[in-house]
């Protein structure tokens, strides 16, 4: 009986020790999590609003066959990590060649976010960012092809054809990566590369515009773009 | 250093958008006709295929051994007729079939891109192939109704 009592006491003592040890171990990760949460809580959520205007594409009109495209963007800095962004733009094309005349006008909008990989500490001196992001783009393009000269050797046919005015709704996925640098106080400059893919029409149609506003050449499954933009940062309390 | 970097970036931008004047895609749209086994739906190779457009003096192809052929459609008419002849071996016997192929469609011009120019595309409405010897209508499937400038694209399937 005494042996039984001794054994039970020993088991209870072991159990209590293990329990105490587990409690102690459970406290350690909780402290680390608490510290991380406190650090995030100390970091201000809102860290500025940026208005950007692209300068590259309007200039590129001189080199891309007369396709004019311009866009502006607004993005907001959250924790200097996440930047929700909205872009709006327009496109006009008026290509008159010997064998065709193509006109198109359209507007586009993109919604997405950028993620900043560097320079996000609260005690940073400048608001430079190096980012990658994704967007969903939507556009409507009205277009018309006229004076199209087409010939057929086998049937010995030739003629001049027109499509009449048409329109198309289009969507696509876009990946963007870039750099934005604080040049002077609230003025920023940035460059970015765009990859536009997974293009899709909202309605099936035999006709399609050769150029899609915001996306580029329709016949390409993937289009690449380049941005050079000037940004203005709205003052905010740091 | 910053000036040099700026100049380099500007030059790269110009190169990036500079136009290449070559056309890298087909500049014609051709109707693709394939022969398939009606049971297995696998391509069926014909010993000999010949086809000529009705109203044209030229033969599109003759003596060709293949399971598919590609023909041009008229761009100034809502339909095109062909005389199609093909032969195959059935149980050791060569069987020659002549059929009158009629294809109706809507034609519309499309600017592919500035380098390639404009091409006539077609949206198929119907296609029939009538055996000239028996009057039987061959089993023809409208597989793809959009005839565009894609090389070796199949639009009609004749089930044998």
Describe what you observe in this structure.
Chain A is α+β, with helices and mostly antiparallel strands and 238 residues long. Chain A has 2 domains: 42 residues; 191 residues, Beta Barrel (Porin), CATH 2.40.160.20. Helices cover 19% and strands 55% of the residues of chain A. Chain A has an 8-stranded antiparallel beta barrel with strand order 1-2-3-4-5-8-9-12. Chain A has a two-stranded antiparallel sheet with strand order 6-7. In chain A, strands 10-11 form a two-stranded antiparallel ribbon. In chain A, a hairpin with a 2-residue loop joins β8 and β9. The longest helix of chain A is centred in the first third of the chain and has 41 residues. Chain A is elongated. Chain A starts with a helix and ends with a strand. The model of chain A has no long low-confidence stretch (mean pLDDT 86). Chain B is mainly β. Chain B has one domain. In chain B, 10% of the residues lie in helices and 52% in strands. In chain B, the strands form 2 sheets. In chain B, strands 3-2-5-6-7-9 form a 6-stranded antiparallel sheet, with no helix packed on it. The radius of gyration of chain B is 22 Å and the shape is globular. Chain B starts with a helix and ends with a strand. The relative contact order of chain B is 0.22. The model of chain B has no long low-confidence stretch (mean pLDDT 88). The chains are: A alpha+beta (238), B mainly beta (160). Chains A and B meet through β6 and β7 of A and α1, β6 and β7 of B.
